[in-house]
Amino acid sequence: MRRQLTILALAGVATVALSLAALSLGATGSILLVSEPNDPNAPSRPTEHFNPAISADGNFVAYVGTVGSAPDPAGSGGPGPTGTGIFLRDMSGGTTAVDVPFGASEQGLGFEAGAPSLSGDGRFLAFASEDPDLSSEDRDSSTTPAGDTFPVRDIFVYDRLNGQVRLASRSDGRRGTGGNEGSSNPSISADGRYVAFQTNATNILRGSFGGVFVRDLGTSATVPVARVSYRAGGRFDGGYTPSISAHGRWVAFLTVARLRHGHALEVAVRDMKERRTFFVSRAGGRDGPLGNGDCKLPAISANGRYVAFASEAANLSAIDKGSIEDVFVRDLKTRRTVLVSRANGKRGAAGDGDSSNPSISANGRYVAFESEAGNLGPDANGEDPDVFVRDMRSGRLTLVSRAGGGGAASNAPSANPSISASGRFIAFESRGSNLNPADRLHFTSVFRYQLLP
Predict the structure, then answer these.
(1) Distance, CA of 204 to CA of 171 (rounded, Å)
(2) Could you tell me which of 150, 94, 162 has the C-alpha nearest to residue 124?
(3) How far is CA 292 from CA 280, 321, 353, in A?
(4) How many helices (H) and strands (E) does the chain have?
(5) Measured distance CA(123)–CA(290) in Å, rounded
């Protein structure tokens, strides 16, 4: 069943003029404020905007924002109920960003929402939410054995063209049962047909206790990618943080590998067509050793050939022997594993601080990531995380969390990059107060950097 989203008030002013930091439209190195400016004089306190997701064409950016900080309507004089909502901005106007009528200040009031993921053209938006008003078919709450009740987080897909919201975290079939436990981390295919998600629900598939599943919105099928089961001795395997390719054939995810030295989270890829699963977080070569440290946050390219991931392993690269976290890319065709978080140039030194949260372009050429390393370039201070993009072909490393036109690096932490299909645009969050004249507070805001003409 589909439900029309009933609350469509805009997040603020319908249209907000945003500066390109004195650069012309379409200039390389320009930076645009995506979220609304944090105004210290606003009637409600400054808000936080974070966790952006960019469409393949770079024209739409979704993000999470705090909502519900207005005075209590009951008249107590205190703040009203708070929560987080999903916001969607149309960036196709260049210097003007327009609110898409979804993710209003009332949406999610008193509840939590997060983890947006956009289809290629920005038509479909997948997200997680605890809001019980989004669907009549989901589980509104769950009760623990101790008797505690809490809202169930579900996965939904919003269609920008018709305004409908569909429940995705459900069992197989058009009227499949909504998950009885929380679901999170959705990843939607470029065509908007497939949604991969992680869940703790025990009723998505008989005999499973959560894991990673893919919902086909065309056929209403829900297919397991990596399920959690029980054997004698306890729980095993499982799946976490999925990333799906453009047409839904390949899904990268985390799972527990049983190694000689113990257990570690490794990155695996499921071929949904051939129904086979293989590990990819391994040293170069067809049968290179699996990483000897935990991996996290895989991101698969649109064509399914490349998988970027973060890892603490010290055996994935000849030049990276430390215990810090680095970003790598595995080429599934050549079976090479390449260190991404390194200084400029093909022979740049490995980063001397933790790097994480990779996002990869459609053909695998560009990889965006965040890093605390201080040796990745002259503008990387190593004190706060910065956002970089590496050109895997030329070895060029670009700092993107900076003021427009090659200006100063952000004066506060920047994180969570999301790169467009061509690598032209990178959305990211930052607490910096020097990235845009309209946003001078050290509250988290969302920006879009232009890397390519």
Answers:
(1) 4
(2) 162
(3) 13, 11, 19
(4) 0, 33
(5) 38
301-349, pLDDT tens digit by residue? Answer: 999 999 999 999 999 988 876 779 999 999 999 999 999 999 999 999 9
Q: Return the higher-pLDDT residue of 259 and 322.
A: 322
Percent of the chain with pLDDT over 90: 62
Are 193 and 248 contacting, i.e. CB atoms less than 8 angstroms apart? Answer: yes
3-state secondary structure of 113: strand
Residue given tokens 């977080």 in the structure block = 281
- The total number of residues shown for the chain amounts to 453
Can you read off the two tokens belonging to residue 196?
């991969």
In the chain, the amino acid numbered 198 is Q
Q: How far apart are CA 361 and CA 129, in angstroms?
A: 27
The least confident of 214-218, 271-275, 314-318, 416-420 is: 314-318
Question: Which pair of tokens denotes residue 63?
Answer: 């993000």
243 and 187 in contact (C-beta within 8 Å)? yes
- Name the DSSP class of 29: T
Report whether 433 contacts 445 (CB < 8 A): no
| pTM greater than 0.85 (yes/no) | yes
Neighbours of 232 (CB within 10 A): 4
Which pair of structure tokens corresponds to residue 408?
């100063």
CA distances for 7 relative to 60, 107, 148, angstroms: 21, 7, 30
Neighbouring C-alpha atoms within 13 Å toward the C-beta of 106: 10
Torsion over CA: 345, 348, 353, 359 (sign): positive
For 73-148, strand residue ranges (E) read 83-90, 96-99, 113-118, 124-129, 141-143
Q: Which of 166, 222, 167 minimizes the C-alpha distance to 196?
A: 222
Tell me how far apart the alpha carbons of residues 20 and 23 are, in angstroms, rounded to a whole number.
5
127 in Cβ contact with 137 (< 8 Å):
no
**What are the φ and ψ backbone dihedral angles of 377, each rounded to 5 degrees?**
170, 165
C-alpha span between 205 and 218 (Å, rounded):
19
Bridge-based pairing of strands 211-216 and 194-199 is antiparallel
Name the token pair of 77.
Answer: 């004089």
Burial class (CB in 10 A: 0-12, 13-18, 19+), 428: buried
The token duo for 243 is: 């990333």
In degrees, rounded to 5, the angle at the alpha carbon of residue 225 between the alpha carbons of residues 219 and 229 is: 120
Burial class of residue 88, CB neighbours in 10 A (0-12, 13-18, 19+)? buried
